Predict the 3D structure of the following.
Amino acid sequence: MSHKLDTSGRAISRWLDRSVKSLGNHSDRLNAINVFPVADGDTGSNLYLTARAGHDAVSELESPDVGGYLEVAARAAMESARGNSGTLLAVFLSGLSEPLAGDERLTAPGLAAGLERAKVRAWSALSDPVDGTMLSVINAAALAARTTMMHLKQDPESRAALDTLLTQVAQASKLAVQGTENELPSLAAAGVVDAGAVGMLILIDELCAAIRGSDASFESYENFHGYNIQDPHVHLDVQNAEGVEVMCTVTLDALGAATLRGQLDSVGDSVIMSPVNQHGETYRWRVHVHVPEADHALTLIRKLADPVNLSVTDLCQDDV
C-alpha cells in the first residue's frame, strides 16, 4: 500500500462531494447512452440531482458516525430521487449505511457488509429486477468484496485489507459495466453499455479515490462502447415508449406497501418501492412507476395513502 488511507467520516464527505461533481461532469455522456428501460436521455441528470440532494443534506454536518452520516444523505436522496437510476442510487446509499451505523471509521468488513446490504436492498426495491443495469455493478461489487474477505491475508480490520478490497471492488465493477452491453437486447442493438451502470462505477471509483486521497481516473471509460465524447447521442435513435413516470412518497405499513406494489405492477412497469424511514408501525416509502396515464397510478395510490413529493414526467424523449 503506497498511500495512507483516510477511513474517517471526512472521507465519506469527500466521496459525496466528489461524486456530485463527477456525475455532473459525466451527465451529458450518461444521458447520451441512456436507452434502458426507456430511451429518455436523463440518467445522468437524474443521478446528479439525486446525489446532490444527498450531499446537500450533510454538507454542514460533522459526525464521527460513518453509517449515521450516510443514512442522513441516503434519506435526503430518497426523498428527492429522480427516475429509476436516482431511486436506485438512493437505495444503494441507504443499504450501504445500515451495517456501518455507529462505526467511526470504514473497514474492509464494514464496507463488505454495506455492499452486501446495498445489493439486497436494491434487488428487493424493484418489482422486476434486471441484469445488465446498475444492479449488475452493485452485484459485482458485493461479490468481489465478499470473495476478498474470504481470501484476505492481512488483518481484516487493517487499512491494508481495506485497500485490497477497494482494488478488487473497483476492478469487478468495471468488468460488470463492460458486460452490460451483452446482457440486454436494447443495449446490444444500440451498441452501448448501460448508463446507470457507468454512473454506479463513477460512484465506486470516487469512493476508492476519496479514501485513498487520490484523484479518480476516468480515462478508461472511453473504452466503453458509446462513451467516447465524440460518440452520438444514441438514445435519440431509439423509439421510446409512450407514457409517464410517476414518483411520490407515501406512508404505509408493510401490508399496505405490498398491496400498493402489487396494484402498481398490474397497471405499469419499472415499479420501485423502498422505505425511507420508519414511524412506529408505518414507513415512508418512495414510489416509482411508469404508466400509460398518470391517473392509472395516482388513483391506486390515493386509495391507500396521501402522496407527497409528487412528480409526473413525460417519458417521451426531448431533443438534446
